Amino acid sequence: MLDYAIIHEDDIVGVALKDLDKGYIYDSVYGKQALRENIPAGHKFALRDIRDKEAVIKYGDSIGYALGDIAGGYQVHTKNLRTGLGDILSYSYKADYKDVKVSDNGHFLGYRRKDGKAGIRNQIWIIPTVGCVNSIASALERQASFLVDGKLEAIIAFPHPYGCSQLGDDQDNTLKLLSGLIKHPNAAGVLVLGLGCENSNIDVLKTYLGQVDEERVKFLVCQEVEDETLEGTRLLEELAEYAKQFGREPINISELIVGLKCGGSDGLSGITANPLVGDFSDALISNMGTTILTEVPEMFGAEEILMKRCISEKVFNKTVAMINGFKQYYIRYEQPIYENPSPGNKEGGITTLEEKALGCTQKAGSSPVVDVLSYSEHVTHRGLNLLSAPGNDLVATTALAASGAQLVLFTTGRGTPFGSCVPTVKISSNSKLVERKNNWIDFDAGRLLSGTDRSVLTEELYSYVIEVASGRKVKAEESGFYDIAIWKQGVTL
């Protein structure tokens, strides 16, 4: 295993790949030097003397500016590094990308729905229109568990706290998100559960849904029936009978849509897990598949890399609008734009938002950006898409699902147990996390530090994703963990 990494030839910091003691001798283009203090795994150290206010280069790009002189061999972190990012910026379109060499190769075993969409799970979802009926939804999930068998994989309730006392764009966001989930092909059937008096009631929701298959989607207004548990169970029995007519069949890889997300990142995420997922993204896109990258606040500082890869000026302009629009969102609520990374990120070695962004956006590989999606907008272009949603893990993964992702690749350096409404593959940046939290982690990208060839690991991840798409359960599914979260904006009445 390597002791440290120098990611780019222009970097002036190295990254410890394991705990390094004071006095350890490291070598770079600046010569051999000794560490002047202990450096924890994932943390940065100066390869040479860095002057006060000098740009600190990592990933071949600036991750901020030195706060005072930093002698070679010392740690570079929050005590001596600050962000160099500004607020609202102007950009110009300078296309710089390579066309993808496309092949049409392979398939997964999925479910072909009557509307032509492809799903990778055969489940029934219970979706409340309002938080007031959350307990009823959960009770119905338990009550109807006897319907689950080999053909029907699960019945899952998705409680959430919204659907009433909302106004304007806030209510609109909730209705769009719920509509996206109701239409999701991983759900063979959906029971939409309303109370009756909420401002996002079923009649309002139907205007967002448009035409629906009445066999696949059932509606229940609890205030309009004498016994909502009895009626709900009856409707779930009908949905189960409908769902069990579907079986797995070969579906071309081009119909696979994968969301890309990271959370609980550490200093190794941008060296192992995120680049590996980027390689996967490029491989899937070369087979005419689709990936979606979100977490807009974690693009700040690396957005110009993505902008150069936009396939047209129209897509570039949508990217600029997404980035600056998200900054305006922070300004509107009088919050600092760069209040990131999180405490866990910093403990893992990430100091500034641009450092986090340069690591985060590696999940997008090198493919061109074909489109930019608003929150809950469904993907329509094959290839790499950007999605406007925050970095919060549950909110972002739910948004990815609502935009059409059948599964999500989730990289992490610190670990998390959550499961979203679609299979969420947890990919660790380091092998110690796998050893410590094997019940959470599905794939170990930390093996890159032990000498496993990156191309070999990319093929292994690709094969694993096809297995998941074909029915293999991820750890969160095995634990029965399923969650959704809606992006709250605006006041609550």
Describe this structure in words.
There is one protein chain. The chain folds into three domains: 4-82, Archaeosine Trna-guanine Transglycosylase, Chain: A, domain 4; 123-246, Ribose 5-phosphate Isomerase B, Chain: A, CATH 3.40.1400; 251-478. Helices cover 28% and strands 20% of the residues. The chain has helices at 134-143, 168-182, 202-209, 228-243, 273-286, 303-308, 313-332, 343-347, 353-360, 393-402, 431-436, 454-469, 475-478; strands spanning 4-5, 13-16, 25-28, 31-34, 44-46, 55-58, 61-66, 75-76, 81-82, 107-112, 118-119, 123-128, 154-157, 187-194, 217-221, 249-252, 257-262, 290-293, 369-373, 384-387, 407-412, 424-428, 443-444. A seven-stranded parallel beta sheet has the order 19-20-18-17-21-22-23, with helices on both faces. Strands 1-2-5-8 form a four-stranded antiparallel beta sheet, with no helix packed on it. The radius of gyration is 24 Å and the shape is globular. The model has no long low-confidence stretch (mean pLDDT 95).
Low-confidence stretches: none
How much of the residues is beta strand, in percent? 15-25%
Oligomerization: single chain
Structural category: alpha/beta
Helix content: 25-40%
Strands, count: 23
Overall shape: globular
Features:
493 residues, alpha/beta, Archaeosine Trna-guanine Transglycosylase, Chain: A, domain 4, Ribose 5-phosphate Isomerase B, Chain: A, 3 domains, seven-stranded parallel β-sheet, four-stranded antiparallel β-sheet, 23 strands, 20% strand, globular
